[in-house]
């Protein structure tokens, strides 16, 4: 029996698509049971539906500043779908301690830097500005601190002469698509 995974997105969902593709392999220990976006216009919702995955928008706006109430609605949807794990795939909201604790040890995130370097936003711009020779991505367990959870895996990508943010983003994203599914499978397998 494969573990059911819920994926949270906010945008185009390319990492979500990579997880859906990985789950098609017969030996994959997980299946994508649900995709949830906090943004009803997220392109990833249509991509998930096109792949046969249930996808919901649970807009944060009607909840105003009550982030925990929004997360309780997301949590209820995840549990109703039988999810055992949660993957944050470009989910652009900082989670409250309530949701983090509810899924402790079972929620992972993909981040586009070699943590602990460059947590938060604008990772590629900061790597280029610093003159780094490599960049990469990190999969980590989600904890209350932003991008501070235990690291499950990293992949490196060179920064080439003449790189701009778009070129570096594309190179790192290709690594993200491989690393995220591997780390999720390893977590599910124990």
How does this structure look, described?
The protein is an alpha/beta fold and 190 residues long. It has six helices and seven strands; from the N terminus they run βαβαβαβαβαββα. Strands 3-2-1-4-5-6-7 form a seven-stranded mixed beta sheet, with helices on both faces. β2 (30-37), α2 and β3 form a beta-alpha-beta unit. The protein is globular and about 50 Å long. The two termini are 14 Å apart. The model has no long low-confidence stretch (mean pLDDT 97).
Count of individual beta strands:
7
Reported for the largest beta sheet, the result is: 7 strands, mixed
Q: Overall 3D geometry?
A: globular
CA gyration radius, whole angstroms: 16 Å
Q: Give helix and strand order, one letter per element, not per position.
A: EHEHEHEHEHEEH
Structural class: alpha/beta
Helix content: 25-40%
- Could you tell me the mean pLDDT? 97
Question: In what range is the share of β-strand residues?
Answer: 15-25%
**Residue windows where pLDDT falls under 50 for at least 5 positions:** none
Question: What is the spatial order of strands in the main beta sheet?
Answer: 3-2-1-4-5-6-7
Terminal Cα separation, in Å?
A: 14 Å
Q: Helix segment count?
A: 6
Catalytic activity: N(1)-(5-phospho-beta-D-ribosyl)glycinamide + (6R)-10-formyltetrahydrofolate = N(2)-formyl-N(1)-(5-phospho-beta-D-ribosyl)glycinamide + (6S)-5,6,7,8-tetrahydrofolate + H(+)
Binding site for (6R)-10-formyltetrahydrofolate: 67, 92-95, 109
Function: Catalyzes the transfer of a formyl group from 10-formyltetrahydrofolate to 5-phospho-ribosyl-glycinamide (GAR), producing 5-phospho-ribosyl-N-formylglycinamide (FGAR) and tetrahydrofolate.
Binding site for N(1)-(5-phospho-beta-D-ribosyl)glycinamide: 13-15
